[in-house]
Amino acid sequence: MSDVITLAHGSGGRKTSELIANMFKKNLGNEFFTADDAAVMPRPEGKIAMSTDGFIVSPWEFPGGNIGKLSVCGTVNDLACMGAKPLYLTCSYVIEEGFPIEDLEKIAEAMGETARKAGVRIVAGDTKVAGKGQVDKVFITTAGVGVIEEGVNLSGANAKPGDKIIVTGDVGRHGTCILLARDEYGIEADVKSDCAPLWDAVAAVLEACPEMHVIRDATRGGVGTVLYEICDQSDVGIKVDSEAVPVADEVRGVTGMLGLEPLYLACEGTMVMMCPAEYADKVVEALRKTEHAKGAKIIGEVTSDNKGRVVMTTGIGGMTYLPQPGNELLPRIC
Amino acid sequence: MSDSFDARNYLENYDGPDFRIMEVCGTHTHEIFRQGIRRILSPKIKLISGPGCPVCVTPVSFIDEAVYLALEKGCTITTFGDLVRVPGSSMSLAGARAKGASVKVVYSPLDAVKYAASNPDEQVVFLSVGFETTTPSDVMAVKKAMTDGLDNFSILTANKTMPGAYEAMGKSCDAFLYPGHVHAITGTQICKDMCEKGVSGVIAGFTGDELLTALAIAAKKHSEGKPFFVNCYPRVVKDEGAPAAVAMVDKFMQPCDAEWRGIGVIPMSGVELRDEYAAYDARKKFAIPDQKKEYKTACRCGDVLQGKIIPKECPLFGKACNPDHPVGACMVSSEGACSAFFMYGGDL
């Protein structure tokens, strides 16, 4: 293998076959992984959920992960938010000519490892190579299929007044991590992305609470954007105790310096959940037993007043609106 | 915590004479809204968001000067991000950028100098706005450009100083919530002198607890009926201030009259580069023609800054003027009274 990706790797010829065999099959292979035109799998029972997501994060590698890991987590978590156990993924790579093969290997490795951890199989893929400058290093699109258990009905329109609002961990870490990884602010801090697959956390929650109302992953726009979306979709208000929102010290430090609100920074391994109050403690307990939700916490509740608004109670006993989501703070975070 | 709790109770149940206190610092304005402090106060205490956000008090003519430099003289404008969207008489810097002007956002004046050093073919102008807190770093940038022998860096000044504003605004309120950062530089003598002249105030820090404490002390002193001054932020503000920073600014800058958006010209309320540094003064270097012209708008930022109205009493507020499409400067900066009122629900 040469050291960098060339246009020949995307030609469909020998170089492409080599790349698939030595790189993708090696890292991503499983009994369904196919070199044919389409993968063939047994039909699952029950309703299926399907989702797709493109990933263009810059830089492609960051503390806590890389674009390969991110592209699996993103689609797995989207499926999980509908209560769907992720079964199969496809992945499509667009690689810039000249991208080091060694780096591509890191991406494929992370993708394979994350898929195995998440219990999902990558069954088909595609590789394209674009000329130098036509894409920035590497872009990945994944699509996934999952199966929904009988009786599960999750939607952003299901929130009811009195529901408790839970976050599965501390907020704003992925956004802060990418911001620092770009090295534009001259700030050094040890912030790792929270990027993680969360199906096991969702499965535990569905087991603990048969009447789960809402599950959303707080990716672009962060927890704040999710809360405003739910207010609109469910026609309710939301009250958040600002002191209860978990924020890592290093994230608080960086965002404080830059004047950013952690609730509006992206998470890639943190979800927002809403359930009837009587199940809230059980849900938190179940979450804390899973690998990536040890910091789960109740942060507020759904209200029938202040419809369409997120009201924050502040540490000194004041009350204020969480500002409405604004412009994208930072492009290309996922 | 116990301090803030007592302060909170005092402010909630205050039943003394009506009390109008004006904050003159954008960070105070922002934090007061963010912490929901207005909602805690007794109806007898009114907070007025005065002219303390550098972006909000920057006059239309200044934006026009910057647009002139960018479009007519082909300069590269370097600036803090907030200024980019402030409307000028015909366009904002964002508008100029869309017409091909080079407008770069920097996070420090020294970054602008760095940019000038690595782009010797461009004439780089830094928009120098702000109060006593930020002026020393503007001066540092000029000093650095001089030391490095750069002939393609200059600053367009609209730097303001607070004492002039205190005097001009003194009648709009019963007391000032003096900005902690400004007085960390200038010290407390100015506030003591104001007190001698009958203008009251307290210096406040920036956390929720610090703000509550300062407000409670001010209200209590006000109810005693005599002019007062208390430094409620002694861990940062020393009586002597930061003499080295003051001396450095004094070496490079001299007092001048300054126009405050919506308020007008306040004599000797600004600073500009001294004549010997004219090579670094963009206004002189590029002989910018006078940009002051009649500018009609229904925007009532000026009345907001003087506490004559609250933002939602302006006919444009939340309609023609909102954070996505700001008409007045108070809506542009997140530290502006209108923007904070809009975002955090001032009437909640």
Give an overview in words.
The complex is a heterodimer of chains A (334) and B (348). Chain A has helices at residues 14-28, 67-80, 101-118, 173-181, 199-208, 222-234, 249-258, 277-288; strands spanning 47-55, 61-62, 65-66, 84-96, 121-130, 138-148, 164-167, 214-217, 237-241, 271-275, 297-303, 310-313, 319-321. By secondary structure, chain A is of the alpha+beta class. Chain A has two domains: 7-148, 60s Ribosomal Protein L30, Chain: A (2-Layer Sandwich), CATH 3.30.1330.10; 164-321, Phosphoribosyl-aminoimidazole Synthetase, Chain A, domain 2, CATH 3.90.650. In chain A, the strands form three sheets. A seven-stranded mixed sheet of chain A has the order 8-10-7-11-9-12-13, with helices on both faces. The radius of gyration of chain A is 21 Å and the shape is globular. In chain A, 48% of the residues are buried. Chain B has three domains: 2-50 and 163-178 and 188-229, 3-Layer(aba) Sandwich (Rossmann fold); 60-162 and 241-285, Rossmann fold, CATH 3.40.50; 301-344, no CATH class. Helices cover 39% and strands 18% of the residues of chain B. In chain B, the strands form two sheets. In chain B, strands 4-3-5-6-11-10 form a six-stranded mixed sheet, sandwiched between helices. A five-stranded parallel sheet of chain B has the order 2-1-7-8-9, with helices on both faces. The longest helix of chain B has 17 residues, at 208-224. Chain B is globular, with a radius of gyration of 20 Å. The mean pLDDT of chain B is 91.
Describe the protein's topology.
The complex is a heterodimer of chains A (about 325) and B (about 350).
Chain A: H1 14-28, E1 47-55, E2 61-62, E3 65-66, H2 67-80, E4 84-96, H3 101-118, E5 121-130, E6 138-148, E7 164-167, H4 173-181, H5 199-208, E8 214-217, H6 222-234, E9 237-241, H7 249-258, E10 271-275, H8 277-288, E11 297-303, E12 310-313, E13 319-321
Parallel strand pairs in A: 4-5, 9-12
Antiparallel strand pairs in A: 1-6, 2-3, 4-6, 7-10, 7-11, 8-10, 9-11, 12-13
Chain B: H1 2-13, E1 19-23, H2 26-34, H3 37-40, E2 45-49, H4 60-71, E3 76-79, H5 93-98, E4 102-105, H6 109-118, E5 124-130, H7 135-147, E6 153-160, H8 162-169, E7 175-179, H9 180-186, H10 189-196, E8 200-204, H11 208-224, E9 229-231, H12 243-252, E10 253-260, E11 264-273, H13 282-285, H14 301-305, H15 329-332, H16 337-344
Parallel strand pairs in B: 1-2, 1-7, 3-4, 3-5, 5-6, 7-8, 8-9
Antiparallel strand pairs in B: 6-11, 10-11
Helix pairs in contact in B: 1-11, 2-16, 6-7, 7-12
